[in-house]
């Protein structure tokens, strides 16, 4: 596996590299979705830090393979199989993104990352055996990547409160490996190929942003929000995506890499600085795609009434529930519009919102005084089940209940 010619004409991304990018789209989408959910729950600091870490693992694994493939790409059977192993690792990493966001569980995402990077270390060892002229550089890459993977695995054994400093140390170690390795000699990477690969990843991030904004606007249309504001929101999101594309592709990157950015002092800031561009582009899409939950859905799920024509009786709601308790008052019904359906009551009586907050205080454990996983209304009462909502709707319409189990108490 000898090095490629850095001056090879018409060098472009291969179909295997495009498949590699396609599978990384899944990981990027998972990170974006988890960030949106964290922001919706109000966890701005924790969600932002988790997104920065998760996106770093995605971007770093992608970037290291991109630079290796630009320098060494024999496109033979062993190389293809090793790359497919890396693709499998990227899918495992994507599967662990939600666990990392919701519970701080890094086991699955670390497993996927270690599979990715270990397969790349094997490719660097193969390059060291096949390219004597650059053996020192390739061996440094192989050893450095392998040692870092041992560090990530050992980090799982560290207590959770002490993991953040360890994560910072491991990120610095990962970033230092290419700098240390290429100080012994530069690999034969192709400027035009590297520029094209970064441009493709930029399009992935922008596409994720456009998709997030499109889904949000479509959901808002379905929920009958203000049409004028939606038009303004959609136009603003599209203009921002267009502007980001225009600015990024305004100056050809391959020209810089082939001339002024071939030295280490300029090449590494260019390559590493793209992390901020990719992460901010992906985060911008998810922030612009945030739309509040449907007001009608919150009303139905939290109060037990359907806000549709024909479901009132004489212009008034039923005055009793299934258990004889009073129906939701106008104040409670109004409050239900702004209450998240993921609220729960702690054993001490305090209402909390969000999955993680409910788990910490035991709101999801009936044995500890919580309501289980069921949401609560604006007044703190558990939300009605489907059968209870149907019975209450029948009572409001003056329809005789269909069974003793759904007959309201007097």
From TrEMBL:
<feature type="transmembrane region" description="Helical">
    <location>
        <begin position="229"/>
        <end position="249"/>
    </location>
</feature>
<feature type="transmembrane region" description="Helical">
    <location>
        <begin position="81"/>
        <end position="101"/>
    </location>
</feature>
<feature type="transmembrane region" description="Helical">
    <location>
        <begin position="107"/>
        <end position="129"/>
    </location>
</feature>
<feature type="compositionally biased region" description="Basic residues">
    <location>
        <begin position="305"/>
        <end position="314"/>
    </location>
</feature>
<feature type="transmembrane region" description="Helical">
    <location>
        <begin position="166"/>
        <end position="186"/>
    </location>
</feature>
<feature type="transmembrane region" description="Helical">
    <location>
        <begin position="141"/>
        <end position="160"/>
    </location>
</feature>
<dbReference type="Pfam" id="PF06772">
    <property type="entry name" value="LtrA"/>
</dbReference>
<feature type="compositionally biased region" description="Basic residues">
    <location>
        <begin position="287"/>
        <end position="297"/>
    </location>
</feature>
<feature type="compositionally biased region" description="Basic and acidic residues">
    <location>
        <begin position="384"/>
        <end position="397"/>
    </location>
</feature>
<keyword id="KW-0812">Transmembrane</keyword>
<keyword id="KW-0472">Membrane</keyword>
<feature type="region of interest" description="Disordered">
    <location>
        <begin position="287"/>
        <end position="410"/>
    </location>
</feature>
<dbReference type="InterPro" id="IPR010640">
    <property type="entry name" value="Low_temperature_requirement_A"/>
</dbReference>
<protein>
    <submittedName>
        <fullName>Low temperature requirement protein A</fullName>
    </submittedName>
</protein>
<keyword id="KW-1133">Transmembrane helix</keyword>
<feature type="transmembrane region" description="Helical">
    <location>
        <begin position="51"/>
        <end position="69"/>
    </location>
</feature>
<feature type="transmembrane region" description="Helical">
    <location>
        <begin position="198"/>
        <end position="217"/>
    </location>
</feature>
